[in-house]
């Protein structure tokens, strides 16, 4: 992955080197001259990176050169981020120019000293890059102007064919029967019906297609059968030539033009019921597919085309029908395949209880994937003793997918076909433990924090673009088990995909869960998941990600560990330390000035946050969900001008929201807004919600019954302009006289709302008039006690699926047109 990351970092650096931030931190002319030199060097190196990518596959020296380049580019990126952060700090400092300069001079980061320090770092970085640039000349790299995405694939899949012996297929009888039904019995409106088979590499899509292709009923049913392996290059002329060759047994004249070829093809398939298998399609461009499909529609009714692909997107553009999704083998079928290969020459051992026990433990690692089972079983077939099998299970098995397996190169083809921006995003997922249920929104936020998401279209938020990236990876089978539970999306990675992510991430990422691994983490490691107690063993100080997952064994986070993180991890973009019983957050945390993502959720005993957090001006995400004793957010929160996601869901002891939160107009989520009950905390009032119209997801407003001048304040909240909100929870809990009757009317949300919860509203028994306008509502919940006596008809809400009414003891009737059985 070094080449893709180096290319993207180089591109980003050139942009940053041209930004206004550099001119805002008072650099002297000589430093600006050095920066211009740095920019020229980066541009020169970037021009040859595509050629270096290709050479690195076969030349280990080039691979090492790329790793060194990536390392210095990361350091240069950190340096420029330091400049940008200093410029932002200077912008946010109040007062006129003279006042700012005086304050800066006497500040802890004196501008003169800062300039000297950064000057030395710029010169050192320039020298390193210059040296690396001069080494590039030794390799004779060529300047390439084509994008990374279209560079040739270094490991091409061998050409497939239509024949497979029957005894080679185990466990696919049900899949075969389902496909035969689609091929022989299903009546389609189209003459040529296209059936996509989808699944990641190694599941046996080609083998299943071969199994069906060679079936006697298929042979008797179709007048003409053809098999073409499409693979990497989707060239319509080449595909047509190969279809003709498969149909006739002879290759067409190489000198024929496309017009002559298409005539030959149409003459061959015209008026016939044919079967065509297009194996291993990668092309995702609709226009190219349509240009081929137009040449294939001449068959008579009942003709079929089977497409095998790893990509859901390919399946969608090739066919209107639901693709056939191939899954792993059942446990019994997997064991049958394993046993056949592993005990090929030693049948007696297949019934030996010791071998069977070890074999089934090994088989669990194979995930039902035939290619993996064959690879591992083949390796075991050469090991004849129980001791050798046990040694393989305990030692070699953990490494086989990275070093010895034949299946990883097969999976890596999928990775090689990814655009560079998706390569980063996929490789980053290596940090999650295996079989971990990944929250998609969190994953996207981590990608954003690392700078993997590129905003080419200002009308889309980074998070929307990130979800697009995720969808692209899902469609290419990199994730599975995608679920939507209405609050968030989750997904998982197959163990094999996790192995692939680990392989392509290389030394840059690591899961650190033992003393041995911690001591092996080197300077070039940038991203880790870790048991925090192992942090003292780390040598590197260039980390950009430090994650802790709740399922990792750990002790409480001590002050000593905090000090080590802050002293040694100054380049961090992501810090996630959940469920560690943290009692106090170090006030020195502000020194982590590169932080974009800080998540300390689940630390239940934290009561206050250090005000110094508001000095981390790059923060995009600040999460304290389920910190049940947390009483308030930082007072100067408006200083966090880049903040998009402050998370405080489940923080039931919050007494108020800080004043100034309404200035953070970039906020995309605000799960909870707490009204100051008696005004004693000097908290924000509802009017601070007025301009926060980018809010998404859920907004829960608490203590509405405590609001003074409710009509004015509720209107000022401007809920009807928050078109991206999907869930609104309105909670009273206190009574403030007669304002409640009018106040609910003045809390009108946007019609896009899907979920509405009204909790303990004690106003008059009259529903607000705007309820009938919320035609997208799916769920309504009304909690008592309340004065509701009559429920209106909900029939005008066509999307409504659930109506929940709890503890409304004064309720007397409900309109007959309301949903039944809700």
TrEMBL record:
Q: Which domain of life is it from?
A: Eukaryota
Q: Which InterPro entries match?
A: Apaf_helical (IPR042197), Leu-rich_rpt (IPR001611), LRR_dom_sf (IPR032675), LRR_R13L1-DRL21 (IPR056789), NB-ARC (IPR002182), P-loop_NTPase (IPR027417), Rx_N (IPR041118), WH-like_DNA-bd_sf (IPR036388)
Q: Where is the R13L1/DRL21-like LRR repeat region domain?
A: 686-806
Alphabetized, the UniProt keywords read: ATP-binding, Leucine-rich repeat, Nucleotide-binding, Plant defense, Repeat
| Membrane-traversing stretches | none
Q: Which residues form the Disease resistance N-terminal domain?
A: 12-96
Molecular function (GO) terms for this protein are: ADP binding; ATP binding
One biological process term from GO is: defense response
**Which residues does the UniProt record annotate as the domain Disease resistance protein winged helix?**
431-501
Q: Where is the NB-ARC domain?
A: 188-346
Protein name (record): Disease resistance protein RGA3
Organism for this UniProt entry: Gossypium barbadense
